[in-house]
Amino acid sequence: MNIEFHYNITYILARKARFDSQDAFILAYSSQYVDDNAFHYYINYPDGGHFISEVSQTMDITKPSPKRQKIYPLFHFIPGDPDSPTARRKDGKTHPFNTTPDSENARYLLQRALASGDLYRMGVALHAYADTWAHQNFLGLKNKFNALPGLVESLIPNIGHADAKHEPDTVNNRWKDDRLVEELEVVDNNDRFIQAAEKIFKTLWQVKNSDQDDPTPLWQELKKQLLTAMDETYLLGADDRARKKAYRKICDDMPDYDENRWRYAAVEKREFEIDLFDKYWAKGSREEFEQSDWYRFQQAVIAHREDALKRLHPLYEAEHFPA
Prior knowledge:
The two termini are 24 Å apart. The chain contains 13 helices and 6 strands. The longest helix has 25 residues, at 293-317. By secondary structure, it is mainly alpha-helical. It is globular, with a radius of gyration of 20 Å.
């Protein structure tokens, strides 16, 4: 999924589940920032010492670092149920790292985040959980299992949904996955995404409301609003501006997303420095820096990564990685 779901729709779901605007923003920003957090930063403290940030996204998992190659299965392509009815292929193949929607592994990681009470960690886990719908039937590895029929293998590495480009992530998009059995091969992303939205809304509702509060009527109304907004486009072609305007009609207090907002508030860049180890400095004291949104997000990434590695350890030990 892209920013439309991870930020805009996640914010709406949190607000409608009765999170206040600030908490909803932290959830939604953290969810989207998983995709934008692609660089390690070496941050100096004014009083000595340093902090090295973690990454939750990479543009190239083919580089030799095993840590880099594990980013996709941990944050974007959580391995699910290889025998899921949604994963049936014409060639009959299965793979233990195959992503499937609402999988047991994804639910476990989300529940761990919810139990922590950490909004940043919840946002990270919501990103990974939502992606189990968009990235279903792909592996977060370089593997021929990901290959779509009819494409020249040498031109596109079979990593994630590289063969499908951005087709699986885009709201208001229909495409074909020719690997799947006939009844599954035509994919309507809005159908997939609204399923994810319902699960997330009801999960967040449980966090903020008592068991006696029934969210079903509210969800039915919200579902209509979301489907209408997700179907918005301009006459001359696909353009997310119309949809984002429609999302704001549902929640008019939604802040704009700026991927640099948290980092710029926490980190000072010294332009004159050539050495990367002297270029980035914490703003304020160490204590102030460690209360910043950016630092707390980084800690959430580390916590999610550790939980996911423990959970998926049997798969890695079973010699299915690297594939």
